[in-house]
Amino acid sequence: MAKKRVMYECLACGYESPKWLGRCPNCGAWNQMEEQLVQSTTASSKSPVQVNTSNNQQTGRALKLDEITYNNEVRFSTKFDEFDRVLGGGVVPGSLVLIGGDPGIGKSTLLLQVSVQLANANQKVLYVSGEESAQQIKMRAMRLALNGDNFWLLAETDLLTIASEIERIEPDIVIIDSIQTMQVPEHTGAVGSVSQLREATAVLMRIAKGNQIAIFIVGHVTKEGNIAGPRMLEHMVDTVLYFEGERHNRFRLLRAVKNRFGSTNELGVFEMLDVGLQEVGNPSELFLEERLPGATGSTVVAALEGTRTILAEVQSLMTPTAFGNAKRTASGIDYQRISLLLAVMEKHCNMLVQNQDAFFKITGGVKLNEPAIDLAIGISIASSYWNRATNADDVFIGEIGLTGEIRRVSQIKERLKEADKLGFKRAFIPKNNFNDIDTDFEIELVPVATIKQAVQRVF
Ligand code: TYD
Ligand code: MG
To answer: Which of 401, 402, 453, 410 is nearest to 428 (CA)?
Structure first.
């Protein structure tokens, strides 16, 4: 029998140490070290699950580029355009995709809908749930009016059983809901511990690659925003998607943060209805739907999200600080960006913001993080500060530099096209971008060189 020894492993990051430590030297978390029994043979490096690798092309011989056959057409569609785009154009056979998100955000609902849609498109799908019974999933499927012939359900947490069912059914797609409930029985360590997660993911990886099965793994996210425990899962899988949104908001955003088969930053927008998730093909319209015309502190920006332009509303609220230090909060925008823009506005636009509380929000729950949103934020700050309404038909595009200059942004034409389509009348754009524009747009273009000039033009 293999000799056992004790190791301590950090639950937060997976750091291993031979002795117990109060604080993890790797991630700094306190009280996260947990005792793990490790078999000191090489057992853990061997898979306890026998996987068919006969059609794996890796032969140990290097190949020339043109000896390798690759066919992009093998991807298959989930019948959700939003989902396909985030994946980089559909599901790749043999890929391992991790979908992270807060509990209750709708991961199971999304994957159940996708499974049934794939099954209806003649793909064999196996949905494995370690969280709900088969009856519960069936109930949900009925509530969503989903019905599929090629669709198998398995309520199981033991990966050995799951692997043998995969061998029996030979599915094209497998859903594992969730990785935190799965266990490799021969591997010591509690269910949900970092070492179990890692082992379970490694087993699934071998199944995916060896049998050309696309596997989707659900992972719950901890409060800190990491996929529970291990960041290392992100390194092991091909694609990492986050499903996010505020629970009380009907919008859900699917975002690729890592993708070996497509670009990251791609965004898919869904709406949670009582009949399940529905994709939103024209998110700008919905994000702008509740805008109050003539409001102060509100501007519209045309921001890039992956390959798509999204128009969203930026809101600022500046109020005098009652006592103590000024408060600043931002939702959907980076806090650093806000601090910097407040400083630039103070310096270049004659405003005194030190004694003002400042609150920022991007409506619709989107997170924007690209330089071109600066001008819209700057103008919304000025609008709230001077209590002067902005024009509801204006859209703002431009990066602001530290000297108050408005800097050129990428893909100006795509942004203007979207604003034009949605009926905006006027676009404030960087002066340096103005000369690149050869297309005729309905929308009137206002080139600006500095934030001061922009503020003078707007108010
Ligand atoms: P779920 O998919 O179970 O979340 P997760 O798997 O990420 O934990 O989603 C559960 C929530 O979604 C629940 O609060 C109810 C809501 N919901 C709807 O609003 N409409 C629906 O059609 C369904 C199935 C769920
Ligand atoms: Mg779930």
So the answer is: 453
Cα–Cα distance measured from residue 180 to residue 271, given in angstroms and rounded to the nearest whole number: 26
Bond prior to 331 in cis (omega within 30° of 0): no
Whose C-alpha lies nearest to ligand 1, atom 19? 274
pTM: 0.77
Q: What residue owns the CA closest to ligand 1's atom 18?
A: 274
Which helix (H) or strand (E) element contains residue 209? helix 194-211
Decide: 104 in ligand 1 pocket, CB within 6 A: yes
Q: From CA 162, how far away is CA 183, in angstroms rounded?
A: 10
Q: Is 262 known as a binding-site position?
A: no
286-458 — its CATH code? 3.30.230.10
Q: Is the backbone of residue 325 left (phi > 0), alpha (psi -120 to 50) or beta?
A: beta
Residues 337, 409: Cα–Cα separation, whole Å: 16
In the CATH hierarchy, which fold is given to the domain comprising 74-281?
Rossmann fold (3.40.50)
Do 74-281 and 286-458 come out as alike in CATH topology? no
Q: Where are the domains of the chain?
A: 4-42, 74-281, 286-458
Closest ligand 1 atom number to CA of residue 112: 2
Find out whether the beta carbon of 105 lies less than 6 Å from any atom of ligand 1.
Answer: yes
Could you list the pLDDT tens digit for every one of the 459 residues in the chain?
555 677 888 777 778 888 888 888 888 888 878 777 665 444 444 444 444 444 445 567 888 888 877 666 688 899 999 999 999 999 999 999 999 988 889 999 999 999 989 988 888 999 999 999 989 998 888 888 777 778 899 999 999 999 999 999 999 999 999 898 999 988 777 777 788 888 899 999 999 999 999 999 999 886 565 555 556 788 889 999 999 887 778 889 898 989 999 888 788 999 999 889 999 988 888 888 888 888 999 999 999 887 788 899 999 999 999 888 899 999 989 999 999 999 999 999 999 999 999 999 998 778 888 999 999 999 999 999 999 999 999 999 999 999 999 999 999 998 999 899 889 999 999 999 998 888 788 899 999 999 999 999 999
**What amino acid occupies position 181?**
T
Q: Is 157 in the pocket of ligand 1 (CB under 6 A)?
A: no
> Residue 172: how many CB atoms within 10 A of its CB?
19
C-alpha to C-alpha distance for 13 and 103, rounded to whole angstroms: 20
Q: Rounded to whole angstroms, how far apart are CA atoms 406 and 95? A: 43
